[in-house]
Write a structure and sequence with these properties.
The structure holds two protein chains of two kinds. By secondary structure, chain A is α+β, with helices and mostly antiparallel strands. In chain A, helix 6 crosses helix 7, helix 7 packs antiparallel against helix 9 and helix 8 packs antiparallel against helix 9. The longest helix of chain A has 38 residues. The radius of gyration of chain A is 26 Å and the shape is flat. In chain B, the strands form five sheets. Chain B has a five-stranded mixed beta sheet, with helices on both faces. The longest helix of chain B has 21 residues. The chains are: A alpha+beta, B alpha/beta. Chains A and B meet through helix 1, helix 4, helix 8 and helix 9 of A and helix 1, helix 4, helix 5, helix 6 and strand 10 of B.
Chain lengths: 336, 350
């Protein structure tokens, strides 16, 4: 029996619970402090330079692509920032595509049509059972082998070029001093490469496509589970009201299914963001790739890994905070 | 679970995660004050090498490593333990190598590593003796009709991350005013595969490795060309941890003995004969029939005899691994003796 609130026994239990938690926090914090202290001591004793001062030195390497202009004379912190932006640049389109594709596949797995159901099941079972890194490398090497050479780029549509150098398209550019773009820059074929305009490199395409396809397979299963969790009676009631199958899904089933879907979806989005670090294998300059390069040119392994950890932590907490807010909106009232 | 209690637990989980990670980082074996004693007690020399760079350190089919760096380690094992086979080769990628030496995972890092000021002064290492003078170059397919690096304007260049190469390309591109784009891969294998698939117009790394790539990995070696320009100096040298001068001296002097053996004409084949009959004091010191220099290093009189007997003099090592008798077929060039137009100048073993 739990004693009634306010009884002396209950008060003592609460006090003890707090004390245990406080002790645990102190022990963990103390342990962490000792480890860091010891590590720094050892590094110093061995003559290894440590500290974050290197972030202000010039990086000395170039970054092949990205939204943030970067030059080898700029400092390391800016290189890390460019890497972070490149991570986001890959993760966001991949996440959107994955959710869309995953939802369609999940619904498809429950479709009455045998062929649709079979295809969706085959997709899910194949894709989610092959390691992501393997898929990524396969896709990348397929792209680089199959696309035409950069010197023989093909023009798909006027101004849109496809080659081993990637997909180039016209892009609005700003003149110096102007506030908004005033004219389009058209890609042109030079002796080696198609240059100008906006270009999506094969590395970028491989990363986005592989992440989206892989995560979609998991999301499909989550969506399927969500839909089947809605009781049959709801569907029958919707049918009785004369709703079309699409209306049944949109108005009755999905809103209820979302309660099951959203928490698991959050996990998938977190995984996707962290999985984007595999991009280093195919030469896409995201955060981990930049950290690897920085680590090697400065020797500050500890510091670079710490930066990467901190960034992923913040990124993940932001995503889960956002998803939790969304979850609060779709959750059953009275549960919170 | 009640949603509200979660935030209270989250910082705890985070702190525990960080603590666990740090524990991994620090739990490496404690620094052995006397590397030599540790090596003798263990009975093997732990030598950090590459995952496979032809000519320098490459695993064979039987698990027997070959290469110039590998022979350097074997010579050290022969000098210290009396048996060139007593080496544990630890394959390391470019990113792992420094941490592995710092943490004491290896006794020597002989992993075609460039000696430069930043590394020398900030990693807690001492580089010992340069065992190969390299330089960074470019490999291009002949079909793009480029014969000089100056024509690479606007080209895409593939390379591996975690090397000095990335930085050298950026420096070179800036200094020469030749804009290029670099695509950087984590593994050496992925980087050259992408290049041979046609993703890049050029591949860049040390020229010694370029020769290996062209001759071993290219679909057809004759379709590829190494451009004449060298864009950097890459003196490759084995490194040891700071703070153990005795071990540092051994790793410094064994390669010197191998180079001096070539200077004075001692080979794997004639060393026994010279040990018995040589009247030349320089030869006598190296074959162990003259003054006992080994004891100054904490070794015995035959240290250099065993090293040379095991792997040959520097010229023989070069010839076998990267020279005319190997797949790389590299010329001696800068790696010839100082009195034959090269840069190798052994400190006198006396």
């Amino acid at each position: 029996m739990t004693p009634a609130i306010g009884a002396p026994g209950a008060r003592r239990a609460v006090w003890i619970a707090w004390a245990v938690q406080a002790l645990l926090v102190a022990a963990v914090a103390g342990g962490a402090f000792w480890l860091v202290h010891h590590a720094l001591e050892v590094l110093r004793a061995r003559g290894v330079r440590s500290g974050f001062d290197f972030l202000l030195q010039s990086a000395g390497f170039e970054i092949a692509e990205g939204w943030l202009d970067f030059d080898s004379g700029q400092p390391f912190w800016r290189a890390f920032l460019a890497g972070l932006i490149n991570t986001v640049r890959a993760a966001v389109p991949a996440a959107l595509t994955a959710v869309l594709l995953g939802t369609l596949l999940g619904i498809g797995r429950l479709a009455p049509h045998v062929l649709v159901r079979g295809l969706c099941t085959a997709y899910v079972e194949t894709v989610r059972n092959v390691p992501l890194l393997v898929q990524l490398l396969m896709l990348y090497f397929a792209l680089t082998h199959l696309l035409p050479d950069s010197t023989e780029a093909i023009e798909l549509l006027p101004g849109i070029w496809l080659s081993k150098g990637g997909l180039s398209m016209p892009w609005p550019v700003r003149e110096a001093g102007a506030f908004w773009p005033v004219h389009f820059e058209w890609p042109e074929r030079t002796s080696f490469n198609v240059i100008g305009g906006a270009a999506l490199s094969p590395e970028y395409l491989a990363v986005v496509i592989a992440l989206a396809m892989y995560t979609a397979a998991f999301i499909a299963e989550i969506v399927r589970a969500g839909i089947t969790s809605v009781s049959q009676g709801q569907k029958l009631a919707a049918q009785a009201l004369g709703l079309s199958p699409w209306q049944q899904l949109r108005i009755v089933v999905l809103p209820q299914a979302l309660r099951v879907i959203v928490p698991s979806l959050t996990n998938q989005l977190l995984s996707l963001t962290k999985n984007s670090s595999l991009a280093v294998a195919v030469g896409y300059p995201e955060l981990v790739s930049i950290a690897n390069t920085s680590l090697n040119s400065t020797g500050r392994a500890f510091e670079c890994i710490a930066v990467v950890m901190a960034v992923y932590l913040v990124l993940s907490l932001l995503i889960s905070a956002g998803m939790n807010r969304y979850n609060a909106r779709v959750a059953l009232r009275g549960w919170r | 679970m009640n949603q509200r209690t979660r935030p209270a637990f989250r910082p705890l989980a985070v702190a525990a995660g960080i603590a666990a990670t740090l524990l991994f980082a620090v739990a490496a074996p404690a620094f052995a004050g006397k590397t030599l004693d540790a090596v003798k007690q263990r009975g093997t020399v732990k030598c950090g090498v590459t995952n496979g760079v032809a000519g320098f350190s490459a695993p064979g089919t039987q698990g027997n490593w070959t290469g110039l760096d590998v022979d350097t380690c074997r010579a050290i094992a022969a000098a210290v333990l009396g048996d060139a086979a007593k080496v544990d080769f630890v394959p390391l990628n470019s990113q792992q190598r420094f941490a592995a030496l710092q943490a004491g995972e290896v006794d020597v890092l002989a992993r075609n590593t460039t000696w430069n000021l930043t590394r020398d002064a900030s990693l807690g290492f001492n580089f010992t003796t340069i065992n190969y003078y390299d330089g960074q170059g470019f490999l291009v397919p002949k079909k793009i009709k480029v014969t000089s690096a100056k024509q690479l304007k606007g080209a895409t260049i593939c390379t591996q991350s975690g090397t000095t190469n990335e930085k050298n390309v950026a420096d070179w591109s800036k200094a020469q005013g030749i804009p290029v784009k670099t695509v950087v891969f984590e593994s050496f294998e992925a980087s050259f595969k992408a290049f041979f698939a046609g993703r890049c117009q050029a591949f860049t790394t040390d020229t010694s490795a370029l020769a290996g790539l062209r001759n071993k990995e290219a679909p057809n070696p004759d379709d590829y060309l190494i451009l004449p320009e060298l864009i950097s100096k890459e003196p490759l040298a084995p490194a040891v941890r700071r703070g153990d001068d005795e071990w540092f001296a051994i790793v410094k002097w064994v390669p010197n003995a191998l180079i001096e053996a070539e200077e004075v004409g001692i080979t794997q084949a004639n060393i026994d004969e010279l040990k018995a009959s040589s009247k030349d004091p320089a030869q006598q010191r190296l074959v162990g029939s003259g003054d006992d220099l080994g004891k100054l290093l904490g070794l015995d009189k035959d240290w250099s005899y065993r090293a040379i007997k095991a792997v040959g003099n520097y010229g023989e090592i070069f010839e076998r691994n990267v020279g005319p008798k190997s797949v790389l077929k590299l010329p001696r060039g800068a790696n010839n003796l100082w009195n034959k137009g090269g840069l190798l100048y052994a400190l006198p073993v006396k």
